[in-house]
Give the backbone structure.
Amino acid sequence: MKKIKDKEFVPFITAEAIDTRLQEMGTKISVDFKEDNPVILGVLNGAFMFLSDLAKYISIPAEISFIKVSSYQGTSSTGNVKELIGLDAELKGRKVIVIEDIIDTGLSMTHLLKKLEINQPSQISIVTLLFKPEALKHELEIDYVGFEIPNKFVVGYGLDYDGFGRNLPEIYQLK
Ligand SMILES: O=P(O)(O)OC[C@H]1O[C@H](OP(=O)(O)OP(=O)(O)O)[C@H](O)[C@@H]1O
Ligand SMILES: Nc1nc2[nH]cnc2c(=O)[nH]1
């Protein structure tokens, strides 16, 4: 059991299970983008730990950068998504790989894709560590999913509850 602020969380995905899955994902991405010099864009804040660990298993030349969009406060969606900030890589004609920690309703990713498309990349692929199929409200084609999970709030491994819990090396589920 893990108490974060006022809520209790139970262990859900171990650090070992995450590492094993990241090896598989990194290997697949390395094969699929071998010739492409892709631009890998991590979505802050949540994806910082996922991308830093995943990147170690990506063995091909790739540009890595981070961008930021935010829509969540506490444990439920506020529905309003902020602007995209921090995009410094040239995307025109390039293959872009977007790295998210979680796709829940799909609102953030839908919004982000619209913003990225303005920059005319040749392709955008979506990678997410966690995906809640039951929560999805916006149609999305997700190319690489680490774990499909039930529609329950999770923290750890980059994911926060009110800013806390991101540093936990494993993932916990709301009790
Ligand atoms: O599919 P959705 O329902 O839109 O939810 C997913 C989004 O929520 C989280 O970000 P958040 O806005 O909490 O920002 P953070 O990454 O800084 O924690 C997560 O990183 C995704 O971007
Ligand atoms: N921490 C956290 N952020 C989210 N953003 C969307 N869904 C979630 C979730 O389950 N946990």
